[in-house]
Amino acid sequence: METFENLVRAEFTPKNTYLNTASNALLPARTVTALAEAARLRAEGRSLDPLYDDVEASRAAFARLAGVPAERVAVGSTAALYTALVAASLPPGADVLTAEGDFASVVNAFHVRGDLKVRAVPLERLAESVRPGTALVAVSSAQSADGRVVDLPALREAARAHGARTYVDLSQSAGWLDMDGDAHDYGVSITYKWLLGPHGAAFLVVPEDFGDLRPVQAGWVAGEVPWESCYGPVTELARSARRFDTSPALFTFAGLRASLELVEELGVDAVRAHDLALAERFRAGLAEAGHTPVPAPGSPIVSVPGLGHRRPELARAGIQVSDRAGHLRASFHLYNTADDVDRLLDALSG
């Protein structure tokens, strides 16, 4: 049986110190191989049926990671598309609660409608700010800018007490934190960060009864038998969450299937333990150097105020991090090591 370390070593060969998974993950070797094979199918004129099989295998793998039946998972291309779908389900004047400074793809669609009451409060006050009449709470499970993790159990309890629905963007936690698809009404995630996939894929988890969603974006793939309803209005929508599908980027899902298989092989619990240990090592080193990161316990994303301007210098030294609003953001994932952490700390002290 292969160990965690051996599996990772076989799949990743970074050429620099890559600490930027919160922006984009490194691709596993198996994913690169799958992408190349998918391109060869197209180039050689062979049947693309195996790529459609990859879409369904990816849906099933994500469903297992989320702990829900595959019938409750829709396949799309971006989180923003599904935010728009949720926003379209709300009646005019609905009260929508969001977190201050959350990622644009989580909140934009509610603002551009123009007829919703959108409130933004500090993340720490989100649960207590749910009130009678709140229709929806929309939030990222982990904040992109600084890694802070929302208290989802408290939010769920507050939302249910007031009859509000919840829309949770899992993009910055899926892959290292248990998703628990039953913990919120709607859960969305892109796949090119902690799930190690290519760009161009997203998943939406919906309730068994689809909640308040209407498939306003429905295309040909939303039919119960898609190849039999390609022309004219779809006469029968899929009886599963597939009614919320959009036409898939086939190459992407060929690679994503391989990525999700690796995540399952490694296990989310093992990935979380690895990632958080590295983040804590970095936080401890920062404290010794006199730097205070944004408090984000239990997160592999560490954001350090005032050091964002050093990103170009670090990049020249072969260390990839992000600059977010003047903060240096480092994110630690399964292919990182203690040596990577120490290299960043040494560069910052130098």
Search tags:
three-stranded antiparallel β-sheet, 2 domains, 350 residues, Aspartate Aminotransferase, domain 2, seven-stranded mixed β-sheet, Aspartate Aminotransferase, domain 1, 10 helices, alpha/beta, single chain
Beta-strand content estimate: 5-15%
SSE-based structural type: alpha/beta
Q: Give the overall form.
A: globular
Query: What is the assembly state of the chains in this entry?
Result: single chain
Number of helical elements: 10
Q: Spell out the helices and strands N to C.
A: HEHHEHEHEEHEEEHHEHEEEH
Query: Mind telling me the C-alpha Rg?
Result: 21 Å
Compute the number of strand runs. Answer: 12
CATH architectural arrangement of the largest domain? 3-Layer(aba) Sandwich
* Distance between the first and last residues' Cα: 42 Å
Return residue spans where pLDDT drops below 50 for at least 5 consecutive residues.
none
| Mean of residue pLDDT values | 97
**By CATH's scheme, which homologous superfamily of the largest domain applies?**
Type I PLP-dependent aspartate aminotransferase-like (Major domain)
Biggest pleated sheet = 7 strands, mixed
Main sheet strand line-up: 2-8-7-6-5-3-4
Question: What would CATH call the class of the largest domain?
Answer: Alpha Beta
Query: What's the CATH topology name of the largest domain?
Result: Aspartate Aminotransferase, domain 2
Domain module count: 2
Secondary structure: helix percent = 25-40%
